[in-house]
Amino acid sequence: MRVIAGSARSLKLKTPDGLDTRPTTDRIKETLFNIIGPTVYDSIFLDLFSGSGGIGIEALSRGAKEAVFVENDPKAMQCIKDNLRFTRLEPKAVTMTTDVMNALYRLEGEKIFDIIFMDPPYNRELERKVLEYLSGSDLVYDDTTIIVEASKETDFSYAEELGFSVIREKIYKTNKHVFIGRAGVEEIC
Description:
Shape: globular
Oligomer: single chain
Structural class: alpha/beta
Radius of gyration: 15 Å
Largest sheet: 7 strands, mixed
C-alpha cells in the first residue's frame, strides 16, 4: 500500500498485522480520489474506522487542510501514527483512539467536516449507526460528502429517512463506495 499522489507520493505505508483491517487497495483508492479529487484540497477530512490511515493520509497528501483519524484498535492507531510520521503529515492530523460513536460525540461542536469517509467492518450495520448520528449532527453541513466503503450487498435505502440522498455508487468486484449527501444535493464532483 502506498500514497498515490501529492506531497507524500509513492511512499509506502505500513498496515496493521492480522486480519482485523482491510486496507483499501491502491487501485480502489485511486478511483475514489479521482472521483472526489477537486473537493479534497483545503478540506477538513474525517477518516472513521481508519485502519492503517491510508485514506486520510492520501487526503492530506493531496492538500486537505486537516484530517481526523478515528480507530479503536491501539495497534492500528500506532500504525497510523507511524505512517503520519513517515509521510511528514503528522502536523495536519488529529488521532483519536476510541470507538467511532464516542469520537463523533466528542467532536461535536469542535469541527465541521467537508468529507467524511468510513470503512466499517462489513455487514454489521455500523455505517447505519453513524449515519443515524450524523443526520442530527453539527459535524456535517449541506455540502458535506459522506463516503461509505461497504460490501456490495449493503443496502442504503434508509438514507432518505435520515435526510440524506445516495448521490452516487461506484461498484467494484467485492465492495462499493457509496457517496451520500444531505437530501437535495444532486451531484458529486
